[in-house]
Write a structure and sequence with these properties.
Layout (H helix, E strand, L loop, with lengths): L14 E6 L2 E8 L4 E5 L10 H4 L7 E6 L15 H15 L4 E6 L1 H12 L4 E7 L7 H16 L2 H13 L2 H6 L1 H12 L3 H12 L14 E6 L7 H10 L3 E6 L6 H4 L1 H13 L1
Helix pairs in contact: 2-3, 4-8, 5-7
Length: 275
């Protein structure tokens, strides 16, 4: 596996897209060919996808997005619902002139990818669900709720150090690539706290496992072997409920496969989207 901050270099700046009603969504749109929409995890940002996307951006039009309340995007007032996120994505694609796109979502982005495909099936080509917590058992749901309670009363950097970092990265990676781990902490710590909590509430309050059989798209389900909560059990459940699915479990990895193994993730996605 290879990784470095060089993979996080942004060669072409993205732009804020005005969706109306006070919603501005950041999108980095580059390349030509079939569009691929890339969705990040809760508390993270579009830049997490730079490494994996570098392995297939020569063949596709790659659209990396900061979802509402994250990164450079705006944080609209009021409580958010899952449908707000999918509506943002549909409106963004309209503004970008995209009718149909492949969709890949990591972690909470995996939830958004499922929801977008269910709400707008005609707009999705292939679907990739990475490290998603769909089909949670009671213990997994309880742990998510406990992390949400911690986040409500603590700074984002404390959440990263105490709850996220040990779950997201292997011990070996934390020792060998501390600059990437530091980058991730900076992203998490820079979040608007209220927006982070509202997005986390959407993650905790939604599970689309019962709806998955309605998805009739070619689907890739990908996770790390040692991911707690979004690991093999959840991935096998997702793949088992989506008829045209393929399951890939990457040995040894924990949750944040985008940053720890961009070469593996990027290669698998390239093969899936072109195959």
């Amino acid at each position: 596996m290879t990784n470095s901050l060089a993979m996080l270099e942004i060669k072409k700046p993205g732009a804020l897209v005005d969706l109306g009603k006070g919603v501005n969504i950041y999108a980095h749109d580059s390349g030509t060919g079939t569009p691929v929409l890339l969705l990040h995890g809760v508390g993270l940002c579009a830049d997490d996808w730079i490494g994996p996307a570098s392995y297939f951006r020569d063949r596709f039009r790659v659209i990396r997005v900061d979802t509402r309340g994250h990164g450079r995007s705006s944080a609209p007032e009021g409580r958010w619902q899952l449908r707000d996120f999918t509506h943002d994505l549909a409106a963004l694609l309209d503004r970008l002139g995209v009718d149909v796109t492949h969709v890949a979502g990591f972690s909470m982005g995996g939830l958004l990818a499922q929801a977008f495909t269910l709400h707008y099936p005609e707009r999705v080509g292939k679907l990739a669900i990475l490290a998603a917590t769909t089909g949670r058992n009671p213990d997994e749901q309880y742990r998510l709720e406990q992390r949400l309670d911690f986040l409500r009363t603590n700074h984002s950097s404390s959440y990263f150090r105490e709850h996220a970092c040990p779950r997201w990265f292997t011990d070996e990676f934390r020792a060998s690539d501390p600059e990437v781990v530091d980058y991730c902490e900076q992203v998490v710590a820079s979040n608007n706290h209220e927006a982070y909590v509202k997005a986390y509430e959407v993650l905790v309050g939604n599970d689309l496992a019962a709806e998955l059989p309605k998805i009739n798209h070619q689907t890739l389900v990908l996770t790390g072997e040692n991911d707690i909560g979004a690991g093999p059990r959840a991935a096998e459940l997702i793949a088992g409920r989506i008829p045209k699915s393929r399951l890939v479990i990457v040995p040894r990895l924990r949750h944040h496969i985008l940053l720890e193994a961009p070469d593996i993730v990027g290669g698998i996605l390239r093969e899936f989207f072109t195959g």
